[in-house]
């Protein structure tokens, strides 16, 4: 090897040695310094949470969807649904606990242009669409102090229970192990058993599946079926048709069908609510499919009504109104542009039909087993004779029944309800379905 070659090799080795000594050291970088820290270090008591709001993007409706639950005057309500009562204590605790001891487990980057890939874009922002937008969850205490405020995005592939998260106003994205128990389903936060009636307390039912001809202003096909629980031949109570029921020729009341309908009415479930104005107006009623007589004394639903009567004399009447094809928040809470009735079922092909329902509650002391101390004679009234004496009512017992009905009205008088089409059909039967052919007596011999 000549001298020139040796010098070139020496220079090359020196350069390589210098480069190695100047290589980037494998030192912790600033953006990794908070990895492993708590996401919300000051939040440790789920019981301190008194409000929850969730903002997300509804791709189907192409709009921002909002849901909120809050404690007001000691009661849980849903502000996003006009302060409808919420059964919120247990679920709120679970939602709040989802964010206690949650850590910034993995650092994923600070690049704003990658936020859409992680699904942590602001749901109220103008950028991104669909699953690029996250779910912004905010939890506060009674003083309004923010306990949690985070945008939750997608889940990293293959990492069960891990979500991309970003704090609003910051660029950094983390992966956090999160037992996410935050529901924005209206049905998850309410008492679904609307009437709170035990089926064994129901002793009478009045069902009239009439319809309303809106053009003519007439009620069509009114022919009520009235049934009461009465002792049967075997000693067990059975549903029996009573006046003024008129059975189709050759038929009798089908007790099993009546029992099914009564059970469905007592357990009717709601899927949405609308605030009812304090002063009911004809437009407010008619827009939901409800009508009143000219004297304002009688209400009708355009698809009939059903009343269930308890042994305590409480009469719950369900009026069935117009169909709505709304979905999402528009279904559960309505909207400012919700207008007139949306037409008959089938007008909007492919959409789910739900139905407005009006609930009325009253007390009838003559039907209250505890209030009636003496019943009138059962003999039929003969023409020309005085009618039988009215039942003798215990005033104290009747006062209790009236107070109970008044409390119930405070709840029901605030709302129009929306029930699913399936729930409607479980209660609303064709009149002929409640009757069966008369049993044929056995042939002689």
Structure description:
- 19% of the residues lie in helices and 31% in strands.
- The protein has helices spanning 3-21, 89-97, 115-118, 186-189, 255-266, 282-286, 328-333, 395-412, 421-427; strands at 51-58, 63-72, 75-78, 84-85, 106-109, 135-140, 146-152, 162-166, 173-177, 202-208, 211-213, 218-220, 225-231, 237-241, 251-253, 270-275, 290-292, 299-301, 305-310, 312-324, 354-368, 372-374, 392-393, 415-420, 435-437.
- The N and C termini lie far apart (132 Å).
- The chain is elongated, with a radius of gyration of 33 Å.
- By secondary structure, it is an alpha+beta fold.
- The protein has a 9-stranded antiparallel β-sheet with strand order 4-3-2-1-6-7-8-9-5, covered by helices on one side. Strands 14-13-10-19-20-21-24-16 form an 8-stranded antiparallel β-sheet. The protein has a two-stranded antiparallel sheet with strand order 11-12.
- The protein has 2 domains: 31-189, no CATH class; 199-437, no CATH class.
Record the SSE blueprint:
Layout: H1 3-21, E1 51-58, E2 63-72, E3 75-78, E4 84-85, H2 89-97, E5 106-109, H3 115-118, E6 135-140, E7 146-152, E8 162-166, E9 173-177, H4 186-189, E10 202-208, E11 211-213, E12 218-220, E13 225-231, E14 237-241, E15 251-253, H5 255-266, E16 270-275, H6 282-286, E17 290-292, E18 299-301, E19 305-310, E20 312-324, H7 328-333, E21 354-368, E22 372-374, E23 392-393, H8 395-412, E24 415-420, H9 421-427, E25 435-437
């Amino acid at each position: 090897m000549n001298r020139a070659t040796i010098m070139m090799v020496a220079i090359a080795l020196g350069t390589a040695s210098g480069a190695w000594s100047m290589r980037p050291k494998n030192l912790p970088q600033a953006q990794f310094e908070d990895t492993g820290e708590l996401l919300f270090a000051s939040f440790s008591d789920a019981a301190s949470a008194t409000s929850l709001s969730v903002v997300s993007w509804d791709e189907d409706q192409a709009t921002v969807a909002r849901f909120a639950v809050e404690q007001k005057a000691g009661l849980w309500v849903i502000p996003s649904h006009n302060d409808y009562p919420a059964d919120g204590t247990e679920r709120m605790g679970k939602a709040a606990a989802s964010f206690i001891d949650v850590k910034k487990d993995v650092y994923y980057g600070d690049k704003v242009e990658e936020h859409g890939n992680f699904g942590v874009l602001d749901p109220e922002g103008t950028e991104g669409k669909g699953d690029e937008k996250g779910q912004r969850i905010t939890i506060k205490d009674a003083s309004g102090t923010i306990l949690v405020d985070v945008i939750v995005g997608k889940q990293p592939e293959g990492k069960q229970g891990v979500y991309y998260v970003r704090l609003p106003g910051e660029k950094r994205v983390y992966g956090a192990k999160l037992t996410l128990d935050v529901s924005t389903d209206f049905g998850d936060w309410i008492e679904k058993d609307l009437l709170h009636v035990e089926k064994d307390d129901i002793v009478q039912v009045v069902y009239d599946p009439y319809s309303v001809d809106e053009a003519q202003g007439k009620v069509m096909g009114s022919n009520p079926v009235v049934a009461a629980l009465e002792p049967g031949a075997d000693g067990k109570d059975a549903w029996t048709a009573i006046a003024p029921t008129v059975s189709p020729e050759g038929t009798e009341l089908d007790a099993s069908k009546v029992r099914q309908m009564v059970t469905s009415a007592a357990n009717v479930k709601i899927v949405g609510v609308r605030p009812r104005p304090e002063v009911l107006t004809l437009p407010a009623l008619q827009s939901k499919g409800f009508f009143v007589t000219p004297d304002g004394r009688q209400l009708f639903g355009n698809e009939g009504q059903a009343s269930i009567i308890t042994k305590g004399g409480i009469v719950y009447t369900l009026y069935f109104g117009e169909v709505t094809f709304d979905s999402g928040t528009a279904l559960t809470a309505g909207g400012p542009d919700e207008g007139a009735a949306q037409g008959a079922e089938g007008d909007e092909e492919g959409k789910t039909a739900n139905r407005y329902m009006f609930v009325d509650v009253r007390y009838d002391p003559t039907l209250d087993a505890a209030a009636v101390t003496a019943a009138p004679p059962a003999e039929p009234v003969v023409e020309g004779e005085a009618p039988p004496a009215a039942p003798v009512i215990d005033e104290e017992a009747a006062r209790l029944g009236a107070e109970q009905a008044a409390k119930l009205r405070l709840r029901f008088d605030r709302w129009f309800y929306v029930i699913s089409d399936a729930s409607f059909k479980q209660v609303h039967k064709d009149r002929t379905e409640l009757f069966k052919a008369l049993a044929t007596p056995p042939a002689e011999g």
